Amino acid sequence: GESVGLHLPTLSVQEGDNSIINCAYSNSASDYFIWYKQESGKGPQFIIDIRSNMDKRQGQRVTVLLNKTVKHLSLQIAATQPGDSAVYFCAVIPFPNSGYALNFGKGTSLLVTP
Amino acid sequence: GAVVSQHPSRVICKSGTSVKIECRSLDFQATTMFWYRQFPKQSLMLMATSNEGSKATYEQGVEKDKFLINHASLTLSTLTVTSAHPEDSSFYICSGAQGANYGYTFGSGTRLTVV
To answer: Which residue of chain A has the CA closest to B111?
Structure first.
């Protein structure tokens, strides 16, 4: 099955610095990738997504990079703010348009210090 | 945007009783509803997938007779934890998907504590 992992379980950054959260996946047929933010006691909140036919996508203060060659996904958060403190998950759909559930990675806890 | 309303947000029940969790898609038709369970400091683990009008498909290791899922309409899916035990204490989250649209909308989660 799909194996989705994160390189760092915790990440501590100073306010104003950039954050990079990484994710690896194993199924080269994976088509759709999403980053979610989850605050304590809440459901996952969509941040940004990317399809396999792209290698970069930008949003407001966030950028997702996809390297299909090494099956690696990253989330970059610019000018990290205290409100960014949360757990971040990457999620993958193994096959496109199949109704498959999202396969979540282990999660990285981001702590933003003043 | 799409919203899934999940209730209750937290519930405490006695061991042996049953608890029902509801997820309603407010502004879209959730043809598929996914149910996840999340233990502290862990990721979301898929429990089951339900399509409107069909029986749910359960992941390996998830007891279908214990976790009853009903998806009788395009806007409502329920998860009933029957004969709950303390080990069922967890954070349960639903996610609605609309047809071939890749959008997945999550509920706010239900914190279940069985005492």
So the answer is: A41
Q: Report the alpha-carbon distance of residue B78 to residue B100 in Å, rounded.
A: 22
In this predicted model, what pLDDT tens digit does every residue of A50-109 receive, in sequence order?
Answer: 999 999 999 999 999 999 999 999 999 999 999 999 999 999 987 655 567 888 988 999
Chain B nearest C-alpha distance from A109 (Å): 9
CA-CA distances (angstroms) from residue A46 to A25, B26, B104, B109? 19, 17, 9, 15
Let me know: does B52 contact B78? Beta carbons within 8 Å.
Answer: no
Question: Chain B interface, mutation test: which of A3, A6, A31, A46, most B Cβ atoms within 10 Å?
Answer: A46
* A60 in B contact zone (CB under 8 Å): no
Instruction: Lay out the sheet containing B67-73: strands in order across.
Output: B4-7, B19-25, B76-81, B67-73
d(CA B29, CA A2): 28
Which chain B residues are within 8 Å of A107, Cβ to Cβ? 42-43
Q: Judge residue B45's burial from the number of C-beta atoms within 10 Å of its C-beta, 0-12 exposed, 13-18 middle, 19 or more buried.
A: middle
pLDDT tens for each residue of B19-72: 999 999 998 888 899 999 999 889 999 999 998 888 899 999 999 999 999 998
Q: Please give the structure tokens belonging to residue B34.
A: 């996914």
CB contact under 8 A, B43 and A44: no
- If you ran DSSP here, which 8-state letter would residue A40 be given? T
